[in-house]
Write a structure and sequence with these properties.
The structure is a homodimer. By secondary structure, chain A is mainly alpha-helical. The first copy, chain A, is built from 6 helices and no strands. Chains A, B: Homodimer.
Chain lengths: 218, 218
């Protein structure tokens, strides 16, 4: 009985880590679709999003069952409640990767992004994917050092995000308003994706230490 | 004992409804700050955001205690788990109102919005505030008719949001890229605020019926 209970708790973490891997793949693929104007890749992300949603439903159902049947307390209860929060964050990461893919599809066969900003988005994609993978690792290993690293990794994303605004605000931005609107929204999607990955890591810190790290910038 | 338990469950709903009211006030005030370039109003929203965060922490603590001490099952468990979700959504609504206020503060004493789009933002503010208030009412009364109304009310927000893009994409948009970037982000904040209010209502439908309504557009 006790053993099965422990397996159920571990199963929650495994499901959440799988969700992270799935959303890392989604952002990686969406970024390639965006940069290469690759419609089949965009479609792949769009149709695969349901998998993240299913994983999330599965995690939530397991968490609900655990609460109903095992009535966990103390640390175990923290694990289950945190799993519910974390599942929400990761599902949102999947949605944001989906939004990137939808932008690529919407403008196809035209590129969404002016060539000038493409390297920044390649980098935002790389940082985002790395954050998602690291969040998955933190869920699996409860490595608090890695959890803390996510916060500084996220600073790189914030810098890239801010830099996009500097580039667009330059009075010589030659790409017009439509491109600026797309860049604004896409940069926001990447930045929010990273914020959610950081939120995941912070929840794991809370599970392990019983304390939430300091306030999150929003 | 049973009576106290019921009071605790009711207390969760009361806390969440208060959060809705608080975020309705925040968006109303932030919208006025935005449209009237009113710095003190913007500062008010910014300093008041902590109240929403505190209400949320309070709801979460109560939910955690209920789970630990009462081990609720069935509908009661659904109520508690949903409270955790709903608190997250409403806190995010507060953050989005905060972002609106921060935009007003950042550009002060200049207006953030070109005069031409101000009426649309006044309307987005009105719809957003109405949605938050209605979400609070749904939490208090579990009125499923009102809950369903939120979905169609949200269509009005989506229309306004889409219309902003049409206005900016017009090749005669005379306000430049910087204004377009601001309009893009602000319109997104209002739209996301409304999405979260709808998500709150949907959770209450789930609490009452045991079924989530159909998939939410993201």
């Amino acid at each position: 009985m006790r053993e099965q209970y422990q397996e159920q708790l571990d199963g929650l973490a495994a499901g959440l880590a799988d969700m992270c891997d799935q959303t890392a793949v989604a952002l990686d693929t969406a970024t390639r679709a965006l940069l290469d104007c690759d419609l089949p890749l965009a479609e792949e992300v769009i149709s695969d999003d349901v998998k993240v949603d299913e994983l999330r439903a599965d995690v939530e159902e397991k968490a609900f069952e655990l609460l109903a049947l095992q009535a966990p307390v103390a640390t175990d209860l923290r694990i289950v409640v945190s799993a519910i929060h974390v599942a929400t964050d990761i599902e949102r990461m999947g949605d944001l990767a989906l939004h990137v893919a939808q932008a690529a599809r919407r403008r196809h066969p035209d590129p969404v992004l002016p060539e000038e900003v493409q390297p920044y988005f390649a980098e935002m994609g790389r940082v985002g994917v790395m954050l998602a993978r690291k969040a998955g690792e933190v869920i699996r290993t409860r490595n608090l050092v890695a959890a803390e690293e996510l916060e500084s990794d996220d600073d790189a994303m914030d810098d890239l995000h801010r830099h996009m605004f500097t580039v667009m605000m330059d009075r010589h931005w030659p790409h017009g308003v439509a491109a600026a609107v797309d860049v604004t929204l896409l940069a926001r999607f990447y930045e929010r994706y990273a914020d959610h990955a950081v939120a995941v890591a912070r929840r794991i810190v809370y599970v392990v230490t019983g304390q939430m790290p300091g306030p999150l910038a929003v």
